[in-house]
Amino acid sequence: MHADLAPILVIGILVALAAFSALALLVRRDLAPAGSWGGVLDGGGRWFLGAALGLGVIAFSIKLVILATLASFPSQTIAPLIEPRVLPPDDVAAQPPTATPPPANPTWRGLPVAVPAPIDNPSDPAKVALGQRLFHDVNLSADSSLSCASCHDVTRGNGADSRVTALGIGGQIGSRNTPTVYNTAYQARLFWDGRAASLEEQALGPILNPIEMGLPSIRELERRLAADPVYPPAFAAVFGSPGISAMRVAQALAAFERTLVTDDTPYDRFVAGDEQALSPQQQRGMWLFQDLGCAACHSGPNFSGASLVGPKNPYAVLRSTRLPIDQQGSLATDKGRAASSAREGIWRVPSLRNVALTAPYFHNGSVPSLEEAVKLMAQAQLAAHIEGGSREDLWWDADQSRLGRYVGKVLTRRDVDDLVAFLHALSSDTLTRRASL
Ligand code: HEC
Ligand code: HEC
Question: Which atom of ligand 1 is nearest to the CA of 213?
């Protein structure tokens, strides 16, 4: 029996018994033969009153039985009266089929299985193999000392060089940190300032860059490759006609780079349903990453707004004025894609996959630890404060001639640790194993 109705029924039965006893007394007094005990009615009146009382008692009992039945089978008896009825199968079939599954969470998704490639550069194994050979060929640099892989180690390393800034031909030091080439296949803008729109467009940049590989011209590149015994037949086989051109070199390099994908991470396993893949601390960091607003810029499955596979928000002003004094100068010198006269630089939002493996950080590699990078991001981009600091900042905006005031969130030490723990969950197992060798 339904638990809530049991006491009501018991009380009902008790009241019924009390009423019945009272009635019996009344009947005994009023319906007795005249003179014996009470007896105020004559014979006809006694019969009429007796029948009416008897019917009343029977009706009350039936009521009790109905109540008990309703209470015992609420799902068959009461629920259909108060809940909308399920449509019979015929009506369901007449409804249009539910075509689209519910949308996936736009914030938390794994990398798509298919790597996006431009229609004019479809991939095939022979093209990838040619690109791999080119990527490792030192003949692509002026003094035959450097290949792409010298700075982007994809055999034993993390796809970058672990230096503060790149080391080009003749020992020349560049001004920017080398980003990893892993997962660049998913990026809609390449380079720190996003100046290249595709891997094809990006590929020839370093070959001709005087302080990277330093070849004097496209013609020199084509001449060198044509003089090699392997390349002419390989290009003819891959592209279906003889000829070595800069465009074909770029297409082969890009096809190889599109194979450099790392989705073997705890994060990808977690969003695929393995709840054990992230520790409770990492899950708290994941929540903070979303709640604080990191995910507004580092969005989608490649953790970058400059992505082919997620929400688009490719560039952001690096709020260098909100940085601690010692970082303001170094991170504000290079303005990225902003005019050199601008006060603050504008940068492509970088992917955070494998970020725990690719120190040092930011466009100039000036920040050595991930913890420091996370703190700087929270302060600069989200006007947050680190525990111990003040909640409030005043700043003078010279362009607008006004005094600004921020009241930021306060991040505790534990918040920072949790965010860092979450970023570790974006590290590929393969690259982590390489790093520990
Ligand atoms: C001397 C070191 C060096 C060499 C050699 C080099 N790169 Fe790079 N690479 C860099 C640096 C530094 C950047 C960032 C430059 C910038 O953003 O202005 C970069 C950026 C890139 C990017 C963009 C990554 C991103 O996240 O936007 C790709 C892709 C890339 N290089 C591929 C290549 C290829 C292909 C070659 C060979 C043709 C090559 N690199 C040779 C240092 C190097
Ligand atoms: C307003 C957009 C924006 C927000 C919000 C933001 N970032 Fe960034 N993040 C960037 C940009 C742009 C860069 C590159 C800046 C540069 O190199 O000068 C970057 C760089 C980074 C880097 C260094 C990456 C590397 O490879 O060197 C890390 C780590 C990082 N962000 C983590 C975070 C975390 C954690 C949060 C939240 C606390 C966050 N970001 C919030 C835009 C943002």
Answer: 5
